[in-house]
Specification:
Pfam families: HEAT_PSME4_mid, PSME4_C
Number of strands: 6
Strand content: under 5%
Strand order of the largest sheet: 1-3
Protein name: Proteasome activator subunit 4
Helix content: 55-70%
Shape: globular
Largest sheet: 2 strands, antiparallel
Subunit structure: Interacts with the 26S proteasomes.
Radius of gyration: 40 Å
GO molecular function, one term: lysine-acetylated histone binding
Keywords: DNA damage, DNA repair, Proteasome, Repeat
Length: about 1800
């Protein structure tokens, strides 16, 4: 049994034993309801889902057989309800919960294919259903999480099936299907034991290759990282050693951090289509979790993973420092957190699985090493300004301190002392407090544990840690400050968490020796003084608001900002020993009696409450009794109304003569005392019985008072008293019952997953009401509920008040008393008894146990109250309908009456958010290496678990009877309840908004619980929308209720409500006011978003008009509304069209639906294309896209069997006829084109494509009506758009698709009808018109219908040629998009070739006439690039390959074209051509085909283009450089002819180079560079050397290419080539080139640090060192900066060697200087180089103080007297050193000697830092 259920109050715990039985009954019911032959039976099973969830959430003990049976049925139901997304969502979610909870006990086999089919059918197919996008989103989430849960049950061989299924999607990395493929692989690939044999070396190589094919794309990275992380974790047999350098290199480069002043994010990340990002987990940040998990599972004894991790941490640690925050902080913070969590989980797994191999387990040395590395990150991030990071650091410290206390605790201690010493940064103290609080338990355990399993090194350390706690507690006293909330809360958390560890707080015990400075009682005194001072100085948050809403506890930050205050008090007072408790109680009692603090009601109340909770008898005597007496004596002196229930009507009248008022001060005082009392007695229980008379008197006199404020306080007191008497709540919660076996001074903490040997966990004690208490409660009910009800009736029936004001007051007080008692007894007053149908008396079902207290009163009382309230409500609505306070009171009473259990539910949900119970301060991890004491789960203090059990009980009591009537149709709602519903229906249409909202909430809750009442409500509310003269507020109220989920769900199954709802909305256009229109539209949009299809019985009722029923004419009614001609407002016309579409789409699923309606609606929407209303046109486009299907006129491919002719004619003739009649009308298409061109808005700024671009004139609501989710899943283009020279187009693929479908539907007639309008519009002047023509042409060309060839030859080809040769420029983007659409490959992977592709390509490639202008040339190139992107390289037919070869030759000849625009186009096309060829070649090598060995392939293999370009490049660079040198020399005027000649050449070279740079840039931008790396590596030198030339454009391009190069990681195969280029250009004669080589080196080394070999690194170090003594100053300084970076980056041996050498060198120079004062013979460069070597060493450790640093800095400072370049270098470096070490200077200066400090002080201008 789960611990929480074991610890429930005894009466409830007894009941829970029946739950196993009742679950079995539920499973049987579901089984009976589900009939596999009838798919509609799914709807009947849905009502049981919430009941099944109940059992899961109640943590009941269920039998595994039942669960597995239910899961099997559930999966069947899930697969059989194919088109019912809503049912799949509900079943999917409940299955996920069941499978995850029982995953270790179930033995299922789940097939993956049906799940995949569901996913494809609902989200990746071209013809989706009508469901709203919110529902689709939920469906996607449900299906994917179901797949994740079922992965572990996939049978053997599933992995290889899945892999081969999705491999085909990954063939072409430049097609969007590859993103989908990676998403599917991540989602489906199982790593369960059955499938582990699939993961081989070959598979890993394959994955790494695939991963490399798309660079710089976080989506892609996160998919593959996640797959690998799972494999690494679960398949421990794979040896990863050889892949580590490569993987770590990947990991490092996935963190987008700024390297060497670069930017912190990818310059061009590859664009992932929106829907893929939306569907597959779309975190575009670094996949930190998977990286961390992989690294932790790499660690093994003897593996090199640890060194790699250390290197990674060395490179990343600087970005954790507070001064280096940025966008990357989030992913780094996650990385740290997941490293620690994964490490902890792995340790726990190894602890609990004793037979795991020692070879793979983490031993002591591995643990120490790991903790040591992570501490570096913790050290950097501890005082981060980023909230999350500093909290994560504290939590990580806490977890690691249980693993390796000897490393972590000294660190915590030193950090705490450091924070105490700094006076400037106060936020540090808060963080330091937090880390001590979080590590408190491990500090105490390691110092007090008697089993000293590992020695911390003598007593000194033990004392040190205990002192640390002592110091932190004494500092905590200073931390309580009313002006600094964060610090105050941190100190309270600290005190609470440390005392949670102690068994008892007492002076006499020796164990608490950490209170060195004073005895504990002194500390306690001081603490209470501070606390009282704090309470006296609190400022209340707001003016205490009058009226009902001011609860007793609207507190200040102590109560509002977290539970620490109350928690700390409870723990402290619960753990004190008897004598100390009395000492504290005296002090508190004195404080409470002498102070009145209306600003701190809640705080003082909680203080008293904690005292009472700890030992009720004494506290009640010392605190409650004096306060009660004081209040009663004050209450006697104030004026009364006497409506409070005591005394008869005569005395009332006599009291009334003098109306004196109450002084505000006295009123506030009484209010304060009553409210504090009400909080204080919350846990009083039976110890309140002696004061029964006093309490009754206090409450009655409070209600009798004439002040409303005092009445309200009386209400609090009554509520609290009732609760304290009859509810179940834990007592002794904070006492310590079991001590820790290893350290008796500490409390033992408990895990909820108790193993068998800890069974004797002490139960919690509950307050179970005694007979006297229930008797007292019943008396209170008589006094304040029964008598108040009689009063209420008498006021409403016999007018007893002549004065309206008196009547109002009396009503207010009477209602308040009723409300107060109902709120107090919660669900202890029995619920209404439902009336069974058919006179059968049957017992109520039982689902789960739960009660919040023992029963008082009877169901009759509830019924009587309801009937009285019904009468009162009627009276109020007649007489006092404008009095909102009375109405609100009455609604609250109705809520408490009707929604049985909802008050408990509210309390539970508020509490759930309030407690930060997961805080690391009170969690002890399962694997604890301090006490060598491991448990199955996390351990927590007993009080925290009791708190959870208490909340669990509250939740159970709210749910125990909630679902009884939802599943059982045998009961009809009791009569009083129907009264309440009628009243609430009237109230929720009230003209005051507050009243409407409250009544609405209450009504919706009631309807949820009694679904039988729904249809009545829906009918009456939709009637309100239809009536002509209804007030605005009635419309608003109706819409609010109608848009609730229960109503929307009800509409899918109930035909009558459905038709009344739709007609109600559509015929509500007569409401004038803006507000009501807005409400109606919002309701309609919400209906659309959540639309869940229609059930069969609604569709039947729609069709049944044949038999002459009424609702059948719904379709025709709506149809008549949706024509332009009807005089409706355009938005209603739009809504009618939308409803028509939804009906037709829903009905397509039903096979018996008549096709006639389908044809009619398709025709209707086709006509709407030329409608006058723009919105309706847009909707028509969506509709046609959905209704038109592919059809008989499409050409038959080779593989499809041809259909016999007469079949085709019958198959679709009806739709064909219906449509062709319409478009054969004269001028139909011309009009349509006209009206469509108006939708195209050429707004330059919006580059949003595909979303109808109609952003400018569509509001959000209209968008949701006109658009379908569908637009977003089958989106075009299917390849990434990265070519910027195409510009942004306004080409809408959905328009093109209509024309394509029309052509496929009706064949050649469409082509003929389109001919003349197309010819007219292609030559139009306006861009929108050309755009429509482009869309129509694209659709026709892509349609593949029979007879297209003839039309192509007769007129289409001519049209296309005209477009190419046309002079107009502005519509190029649209025509490029048209061509791109027309050649797009078909099928999911875009590999099926459209029939017309070859013809279109030939038409574009055909050479232009020699007279063509540059615009035409540029246009042709733009079209070419658009078309080439769409080709699918792996499977190109030979004709397309030949085309590539021809084009390559043409372009290489044109590379130095005179126009810049054309040069760019050539560069872009070259990158596409070359990468396409490369990809095809690599594909042919892997999967060679027989006919593939043609002459074409051998031509490709030679790669002539590569040789040509490379040769030309090196030559061009030389020429450009010489030219620029001769330019600078050539100042003479007489230029001879030869020179001019060479100048012209060099200009050609410049143009040629520009094209080459365009080629490089576009390869990077498009992500195609992976296939061209060897080519690009060859062009590294030109890019580096042409950064600074006299040709401005060239240099700009070179710089752009350079920025992109910095981000590229080269694989090992090309590294040698790159290093060769780097080394040679570092020796270049031009110093600018040397400098840019250094710039490149910094990032190059960072990106490749894991994969460079030792020799390569040595060469690079040597080269950089040589540049330290370069002749040019800039280069020298640059080299020093690079060296500092290299030294940070991990290669310790190189760094140490260099440091020693540079120190020796500088030292010898300094000594020589000292020997002879004269200037030395050494060159300035030499000395400067030596100094810079020192500078590099000093700057390489910006925040630490290693042992060698002081000497280096001092030596550096001695050079301050040198001549100019050296002097400034020294001063800058010392200043920088001082800046970065300023934070911790107080401690770090101890590592310097006095002399060294003096020398430093001389160099520094301001010596104040170095005091």
């Amino acid at each position: 049994m789960h611990l929480y259920n074991e610890w429930l109050p005894p009466p409830v715990a007894e009941e829970t034993k029946k739950e196993k039985e009742s679950f079995a009954r539920v499973v049987r019911c579901v089984k009976e309801l589900h009939r596999p032959d009838d798919p509609e039976s799914v709807y009947a099973t849905l009502k049981w889902i919430s009941v099944i969830e109940l059992f899961v959430r109640a943590k009941s003990e269920l039998s595994v057989e039942d669960v597995s049976e239910l899961v099997e049925i559930g999966l069947q139901i899930f697969h059989s309800s194919e088109n019912k997304l809503y049912a799949q969502v509900r079943w999917g979610n409940v299955l996920v919960r069941l499978i995850n909870k029982f995953r270790k006990k179930l033995s299922l086999k789940v097939q993956w294919r049906p799940l995949y089919d569901t996913l494809i059918h609902a989200h990746f197919s071209r013809s989706p259903g009508p469901e709203g996008w919110r529902l689709r989103q939920r469906h996607f989430m449900a299906v994917t999480s179901l797949i994740r849960s079922c992965r572990r049950f996939f049978p053997q061989g599933a992995a290889s099936e899945i892999w081969s299924e999705f491999m085909s999607l990954l063939e072409n990395p430049w097609h969007n299907s590859s993103f989908e493929g990676s998403g599917f692989v991540r989602l489906f690939l199982p790593t369960n034991p059955e499938n582990q044999d699939f993961f081989s070396e070959k598979w890993i190589k394959n994955v790494l290759e695939l991963w490399d094919s798309i660079p710089n794309c976080q989506f892609w990275n996160s998919q593959w990282t996640s797959v690998l992380a799972r494999v690494i974790k679960n398949c421990s047999f794979i040896d990863w050693e050889s892949y580590l350098p490569m993987l770590f290199s990947r990991f490092l480069n996935m963190f987008e951090v700024p390297v060497a002043n670069g930017s912190g994010s990818y310059p061009f990340s590859v664009d992932v289509p929106r829907n893929t990002r939306f569907l597959f987990s779309n975190r575009t940040t670094t996949p930190s979790k998977s990286i961390a998990q992989s690294i932790v599972y790499f660690l093994k004894p003897g593996s090199s993973a640890h060194e790699q991790l250390e290197k990674l941490v060395n490179l990343l640690e600087q970005y954790y420092h507070p001064s280096n925050g940025g966008r990357w902080t989030y992913s780094l913070e996650r990385f740290l957190l997941h490293l620690v969590i994964a490490f902890q989980k792995r340790l726990q797994r190894e602890q609990q699985d004793p037979d795991s191999l020692p070879a793979t387990c983490l031993g002591k040395p591995e643990r120490v090493a790991f903790v040591g590395v992570v501490l570096k990150l913790i050290d950097r991030g501890q005082y981060s300004k980023n909230e999350h990071l500093s909290e994560t650091v504290a939590a990580a410290t806490s977890m690691l301190s249980y693993v390796e206390p000897s490393l972590v605790l000294p660190f915590v201690a030193s950090r705490f002392h450091l924070a105490l010493e700094t006076t400037t940064a106060t936020h540090q103290l808060k963080t330091a407090m937090m880390s001590v609080a979080f590590a408190g338990r491990s500090i105490l355990q390691s110092s007090m544990s008697t089993a000293k399993s590992q020695d911390l090194g003598g007593d000194v350390d033990d004392r040190m840690f205990l002192d640390l706690i002592g110091i932190s507690l004494s500092n905590a006293l200073l931390g309580m400050d009313a002006n600094d909330p964060p610090k105050t809360l941190a100190t309270m958390q600290l005190i609470g968490s440390i005392f949670s560890n102690m068994a008892v707080l007492d002076d006499s015990s020796d164990d608490l020796s950490f209170m060195t400075m004073a005895s504990f009682s002194e500390w306690l005194d001081e603490f209470l003084c501070r606390l009282i001072a704090l309470l006296q100085h609190l400022e209340p948050n707001s003016v205490i608001n009058e009226g009902l809403s001011s609860s007793a506890t609207s507190g200040t930050f102590l109560v509002e900002d977290g539970p620490y205050y109350y928690c700390m008090l409870e723990i402290l007072l619960g753990r004190l020993s008897g004598s100390l408790y009395n000492q504290a109680l005296k002090k508190i009692s004195k404080f409470v009696q002498t102070n009145i603090l209306p600003g701190a009601i809640a705080e003082v109340g909680l203080l008293c409450c904690a005292c009472v909770h700890s030992t009720p008898e004494e506290a009640v005597a010392q605190i409650v009794e004096p306060m009660l007496l004081a209040v009663i004596s004050s209450l006697k002196e104030i004026p009364v109304n006497g409506y409070g229930g005591k005394g008869s009507a005569e005395t009332l009248v006599s009291n009334k003569q003098d109306k004196q008022t109450l002084s505000p001060a006295l009123e506030a005082a009484i209010d304060y005392q009553l409210k504090v009392l009400s909080v204080a007695i919350t846990y009083g229980g039976s110890s309140l019985l002696p004061y029964k008379g006093l309490l009754i008197e206090a409450i009655s006199s409070a209600f009798n008072s004439s002040s409303w404020k005092v009445n309200g306080a009386g209400d609090h007191l009554l509520r609290s008293l009732l609760g304290s008497l009859i509810l179940y709540y834990p007592i002794d919660q904070y006492k310590c019952l079991s001590r820790h076996p290893a350290a008796p001074a500490l409390e033992e903490w408990i895990s909820t997953k108790a193993s068998s040997k800890d069974e004797q966990v002490a139960h919690s004690r509950w307050h179970v009401p005694t007979q006297e208490e229930t008797q007292f409660a019943n008396e209170l009910l008589d006094l304040h509920l029964q008598s108040a009800l009689d009063d209420l009736l008498s006021i409403c029936q016999s007018n007893i008040h002549s004065d309206a004001g008196d009547e109002k007051t009396h009503l207010k007080v009477t209602l308040l008393r009723i409300d107060s008692t109902l709120q107090g007894v919660l669900s202890c007053l029995p619920d209404f008894r439902p009336s069974p149908r058919h006179d059968m008396v049957e017992d109520l079902q039982f689902f789960i146990a739960g009660a919040s207290g023992s029963c008082v009163g009877s169901a009759e009382i509830r019924e009587k109250t309801a009937i009285t309230i019904h009468a009162a409500c009627k009276y109020l609505l007649e007489k006092k309908s404008d009095d909102s306070i009375l109405l609100i009171l009455i609604i609250r009473i109705m809520d408490a009456l009707g929604n049985y259990g909802s008050l408990e539910y509210d309390e539970w949900s508020n509490h759930r958010q309030a407690w930060k119970l997961e805080s690391a301060a009170i969690v002890e991890p399962p694997a604890n290496f301090i006490t060598e004491f491991n448990s199955k789960g996390k351990r927590r203090p007993r009080w925290a678990l009791i708190d959870k059990a208490y909340m669990h009980n509250t939740w159970r009591s709210s749910q125990s009877s909630y679902h009884l009537f939802r599943t059982d149709g045998n009961f009809s709602p009791p009569e009083p309840l129907t009264f309440l519903v009628d009243d609430l229906l009237t109230l929720c249409l009230h003209n005051y908004e507050t009243v409407r909202v409250l009544a609405g909430k209450s009504l919706i809750k009631l309807l949820k619980r009694w679904p039988q009442l729904l249809s009545k409500c829906v009918l009456s509310l939709t009637e309100n929308l239809r009536k002509p003269d209804v007030q605005e507020y009635v419309v608003l109220g109706s819409c609010a209720i109608l848009s609730s989920h229960s109503v929307l769900k009800h509409l899918t199954t109930d035909p009558k409500s459905f038709s009344s709802f739709l007609l109600g909305i559509l015929s509500s256009s007569h409401h004038e006011s803006m507000k009501s229109q807005k409400a109606i539209i919002e309701l309609f949009v919400k209906y659309n978003i959540h639309f869940a299809g229609l059930s069969r019985n609604i569709l039947r009722s729609l069709e049944s008009h044949v038999e002459g029923s009424t609702s059948g004419d719904l379709v025709s009614q709506i149809g008549s509304m949706s024509f332009d001609s009807s005089s409706l407002h355009w938005r209603y016309n739009l809504m009618a069209n939308r409803v028509l579409l939804l009906l037709v789409m829903s009905s397509r699923i039903d096979p018996s639906f008549s096709l006639k309606i389908l044809d009619e609606t398709a025709g209707h929407f086709l006509k709407n294309l030329k409608s006058q209303l723009p919105q309706t046109r847009i909707l028509a486009i969506s509709a046609l896209n959905i209704l038109l299907k592919e059809s008989p006129h499409k050409m038959q491919g080779k593989d499809q069997p041809s259909v016999s002719s007469q079949e085709t004619e019958n198959a679709n003739s009806s739709l064909d006829l219906a449509l062709s009649q319409i478009f054969r009308e004269e001028g139909f298409f011309k009009e349509t084109f006209e009206s469509l061109s108006h939708i195209h808005i050429t707004d330059t700024d919006s580059s949003s494509r595909g979303n109808h671009g109609s952003s400018s004139f569509q509001s959000m609501a209209d968008k949701s009506i006109t658009r379908f989710y569908f637009e977003f899943s089958a989106s075009w283009p299917r390849t990434p758009s990265w070519i910027s020279l195409l510009g942004s187009d306004i080409f809408y693929p959905s328009f093109a698709r209509i024309f394509k479908r029309l052509a496929q539907e009706c064949g050649v007639p469409v082509l003929l009808a389109l001919k003349s309008p197309l010819e007219e519009f292609c030559n139009a002047k306006e861009r929108p018109k050309q755009c429509v023509a482009a869309e129509a042409l694209a659709g026709v060309l892509h349609s593949d219908v029979n007879g297209l060839f003839n039309e192509w030859d007769s007129w289409i080809m001519v049209q296309l040629q005209n477009v190419i040769l046309g002079q107009s420029v502005e519509s190029i983007p649209e025509w490029a998009a048209c061509i791109r659409y027309a050649v797009t490959g078909k099928g999911k992977q875009g590999t099926k070739i459209p029939v017309m592709r070859q013809q279109i390509l030939d038409c574009i490639v055909a050479p232009l006439p020699p007279t063509a202008t540059t615009t035409v040339v540029a246009k042709r190139y733009a079209f070419l690039s658009a078309a080439l992107i769409e080709l699918s390289p792996p499977k190109m037919p030979v004709t397309e390959v030949k085309l590539h070869i021809v084009l390559l030759d043409e372009l290489i000849c044109n590379m130095s074209h005179s126009s810049a625009q054309i040069r760019e186009a050539i560069g872009v096309i070259l990158s596409v051509l070359c990468s396409n060829i490369r990809l095809r070649m690599s594909y042919q090598q892997e999967y060679p085909t027989e006919e593939g060995k043609t002459d074409v392939d051998s031509q490709l293999k030679e790669e002539n283009w590569f040789k040509l370009i490379s040769a030309k490049a090196s030559e061009a660079v030389k020429n450009i450089q010489q030219a620029s040198i001769s330019d600078s020399l050539d100042t003479s005027t007489d230029v001879d002819m030869g020179n001019a000649q060479s100048n012209g050449d060099s200009l050609d070279d410049v143009k040629w180079m520009e094209t080459l740079f365009h080629f490089i840039i576009s390869s990077f931008k498009s992500g195609r560079a992976s296939y061209l790396l060897d080519v690009i590596a060859g062009f590294l030198y030109p890019v580096m050397s042409l950064q600074e030339t006299s040709h401005k454009d060239l240099s700009i391009l070179a710089k752009a290419a350079f920025e992109l190069l910095k981000w590229r990681v080269f694989p090992e195969s090309h590294l040698q080539k790159v290093i060769g280029v780097i080394l040679s250009s570092a020796d270049d004669s031009n110093w600018r080139i040397r400098s840019s080589t250094l710039t490149y080196l910094r990032t190059f080394m960072y990106r490749h640090t894991f994969i460079l070999t030792h020799e390569d690194k040595q060469k690079i170090w040597k080269t950089v060192e040589k540049l330290l003594v370069d002749s040019q100053v800039e280069v020298r300084e640059h080299a020093a900066a690079v060296l500092a970076g290299l030294m940070k980056g991990g290669d310790e041996d190189f760094a140490a060697d260099f440091r020693d050498r540079s120190y020796a060198e500088a030292n010898s120079i300094q000594k020589r200087r000292n020997r002879r004062k004269s200037s030395s013979t050494q060159s300035i460069a030499g000395v400067h180089g030596a100094v810079l070597g020192l500078v590099a060493s000093v700057l390489s450790v910006p925040y630490d103080m290693p042992s060698w640093l002081p000497e280096h800095v001092t030596l550096l400072a001695r050079f301050a007297g040198e001549p100019t370049p050296i002097k400034s270098t020294v001063t800058k470096a010392v200043a920088e050193f001082r800046r970065t070490h300023a934070d911790t200077w107080n401690i770090q200066k101890d590592s310097f000697t006095e002399d060294q400090l003096e020398i430093l002080a001389d160099t520094s201008s301001s010596s104040s830092y170095f005091a």
